[in-house]
Amino acid sequence: MKIRLLLILLLFTAGLSSCTKEGKGGSSSISGIIKRNGVYIIPNSVVYIKYGTTEWPGEDPQYYDDSYATGPEATFEFNELKKGDYYIYATGFDVTGGFAVNGGMVVNLGRKAHKELDPLIVNN
Question: Cβ contacts of residue 12 below 8 Å, gap of 6+?
Fold first, then answer.
């Protein structure tokens, strides 16, 4: 009886560990640079990430799980992610054109993977 209970407990624990959801706690990462039309760097942008989706969550920051404010180089990085699907969305202001820009894309990460989004394209 004890062996049977132990076996059930081990199977249950193994099942839980294989059901990891996207998000923090892994060894994968996503990084990139924000560019309008793939050419013009958009400094001081904000990049948002939504865990576990292939659909655009919308423009409202409350729909996202984390964010990153870029600097003058317009680069960003999200580290320690688990494998799975993520939606990356960026907003910024193109000072050369004088207008707001935004854009996003789906990223699928494997275990211990790194995805470089160069560029993450935003448009007006």
Answer: none
Bridge partners for 116 per DSSP? 31
Residue ranges of domains in the chain: 22-122
Strands 24-36 and 114-122: parallel
Would you say 47 and 104 are in contact if contact means Cβ atoms under 8 Å apart? no
Instruction: For residue 32, give the nearest of 62, 73, 66 by alpha carbon.
Output: 73
User: What kind of architecture, by CATH, is found in domain 22-122?
Assistant: Sandwich (2.60)
The alpha carbon of 71 is separated from its chain's Cα centroid by a whole number of angstroms, namely 18
Residue 12 main-chain phi, psi, to 5 deg? -65, -45
**Residues lower than pLDDT 50 in the chain:** 5-7, 9-11, 13-18
Cα(4)–Cα(10) distance, integer angstroms = 10
Please tell me the distance from the alpha carbon of residue 124 to that of residue 75, in angstroms, as a whole number: 19
pTM of the model: 0.83
* pLDDT tens digit sequence for 6-25: 445 444 544 444 456 999 99
